[in-house]
């Protein structure tokens, strides 16, 4: 019985070595560098080198048939590209109202009687506001927007804030004032 267990584990180690060599060859063809943790890597700490990596290799040696089947499945089926992540952008129908910098600062002026928040527009977020208005040009328009957005993972969010409209085109420069997760409601 013990000889079968030893043979099984040695076969697992052989499969690990072969999979590692295939992985190295694939990376070399793609011109990429290996990001896997290596026992011989001088940069990794003791946790990775002496505990995590040996446990990972022991797990792989014990469950090598599953890993081999997964590798064969990927080889036969082919790797599917990940869907491209959707990026939020303000659409013309999301625009609410054209405002001046003074009107926005008046709307978002913070007053904290305890003095924990600076008495500035947007409070602690005042540097973000300054960075936003720094991107504006004299002929730009600042518009408020309000949108419900769904990302690639079908998570819905309510987003509101301000966006720069330059020459009739909505730019990617925006300041979010509201981000609310709509999935739990």
Contiguous uncertain segments of 5+ residues: 34-40
DSSP, total strands: 4
In N-to-C order, the SSE pattern is HHHEHHEEE
Mean pLDDT rating: 82
Task: Report the end-to-end length measured between terminal Cα atoms.
Answer: 58 Å
General form: elongated
Can you put this structure into words, describing what you see?
Helix content is 41%, strand content 21%. The chain has 5 helices and 4 strands; from the N terminus they run αααβααβββ. Strand 2 and strand 3 form a beta hairpin. Helix 1 (2-30) crosses helix 2. It starts with a helix and ends with a strand.
Compile the SSE list and pairings:
Layout (H helix, E strand, L loop, with lengths): L1 H29 L15 H17 L1 H14 L17 E5 L1 H7 L18 H9 L6 E10 L5 E11 L2 E13 L4
Antiparallel strand pairs: 1-2, 2-3, 3-4
Helix pairs in contact: 1-2
Which terms would index this structure?
alpha+beta, 185 residues, 4 strands, four-stranded antiparallel beta sheet, single chain
In short:
A hairpin with a 5-residue loop joins strand 2 and strand 3. The protein is built from five helices and four strands. It is an alpha+beta fold and 185 residues long.
């Amino acid at each position: 019985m013990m000889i079968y267990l030893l043979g099984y584990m040695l076969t697992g180690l052989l499969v690990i070595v072969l999979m590692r060599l295939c992985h190295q060859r694939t990376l070399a063809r793609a011109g990429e560098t290996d990001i896997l943790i290596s026992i011989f890597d001088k940069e990794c700490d003791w946790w990775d080198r002496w505990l995590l990596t040996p446990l990972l290799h022991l797990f792989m040696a014990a469950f090598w048939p599953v890993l081999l089947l997964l590798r064969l499945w990927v080889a036969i089926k082919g790797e599917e590209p990940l869907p491209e992540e959707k990026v939020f952008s303000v659409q013309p129908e999301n625009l609410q109202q054209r405002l001046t910098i003074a009107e926005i600062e008046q709307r978002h002026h913070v007053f904290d009687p305890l003095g924990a928040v600076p008495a500035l527009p947007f409070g602690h977020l005042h540097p973000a506001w300054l960075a936003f208005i720094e991107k504006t040009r004299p002929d730009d328009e600042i518009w408020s927007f309000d949108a419900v957005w769904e990302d690639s993972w079908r998570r819905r969010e309510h987003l509101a804030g301000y966006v720069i409209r330059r020459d009739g085109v909505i730019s990617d420069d925006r300041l979010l004032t509201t981000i609310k997760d709509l999935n739990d409601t």
